[in-house]
Amino acid sequence: AQKITQTQPGMFVQEKEAVTLDCTYDTSDQSYGLFWYKQPSSGEMIFLIYQGSYDEQNATEGRYSLNFQKARKSANLVISASQLGDSAMYFCAMREGRGYSTLTFGKGTMLLVSP
Amino acid sequence: EAGVVQSPRYKIIEKKQPVAFWCNPISGHNTLYWYRQNLGQGPELLIRYENEEAVDDSQLPKDRFSAERLKGVDSTLKIQPAELGDSAVYLCASRPGLATADTQYFGPGTRLTVL
């Protein structure tokens, strides 16, 4: 079974609109972390936001927020006021357990922001 | 603060040739990761180092891939001989010691094309 599922291969949004990128995860661990990364065409993976499994508040970082629904095992990324520079691939990733565990990534969602 | 540095950024080789990638992590980061990202996929772990020790190399194809992290700082990933299926982006990431967000920071990657 896929540990991280991103069901939207591509998303389109107009500039200044908000967009939600979906991510569902599968784990039996009680302690885990969820991450979102942005990968522009240049190739670098840019960290956006993190949510710990025990965090009671949804994470926010500027225009990025994470809609964490633990019972549904979903961790959707919300980008408010989209900008042209937001056009990129977006990856959801999970770290299971504590410590130095590796990240498991989803297949990504391509976001295109139009003027 | 300098980010993760990787070189070369691009490499084109013929099959059966050897190739090496170099990574310099963020200063002070003890944990170093090598990932491979195939086209249209998320990154997948090849090997993880804690200081100079390889603690997770279960996904590294050891018949042709090797890695080292001398003195627990820079790391080199080698493929010998390369095969057509090795064409991918090779990403290096690093992580500080125990931290609340345990975020991994990625380099720009090396795009390998095997002809």
Name the largest protein-protein interface in this structure: A-B, 23 and 28 residues
Radius of gyration of chain A: 14 Å
Along the chain, the helix and strand elements of chain A come as: EEEEEEEEEEEE
Shape, per Cα inertia axes of chain B: globular
Helix count of chain B equals 0
Q: Distance between termini of chain B?
A: 37 Å
Question: How large, in whole angstroms, is the Cα Rg of chain B?
Answer: 14 Å
The overall strand count of chain A is 12
Roughly what fraction of the amino acids of chain A lie in strands? over 45%
In percent, how helical is the residue content of chain B?
under 10%
Count of DSSP-assigned helices of chain A:
0
Describe the structure.
The complex is a heterodimer of chains A (115) and B (115). Chain A is mainly β and 115 residues long. In chain A, 0% of the residues lie in helices and 51% in strands. Chain A has no helices and twelve strands. In chain A, strands 2, 5, 6, 10, 11 and 12 form a six-stranded mixed sheet that branches. In chain A, strands 3-9-8-7 form a four-stranded antiparallel sheet, with no helix packed on it. In chain A, strand 8 and strand 9 form a beta hairpin. Chain A is globular, with a radius of gyration of 14 Å. The model of chain A has no long low-confidence stretch (mean pLDDT 93). With 115 residues, chain B is mainly β. Chain B contains no helices and eleven strands. In chain B, the strands form two sheets. In chain B, strands 2, 4, 5, 6, 9, 10 and 11 form a seven-stranded mixed sheet that branches. Chain B is globular. The N and C termini of chain B lie far apart (37 Å). The model of chain B has no long low-confidence stretch (mean pLDDT 92). Classes of the chains: A mainly beta (115), B mainly beta (115). At the A-B interface, strand 5, strand 6 and strand 10 of A face strand 5, strand 9 and strand 10 of B.
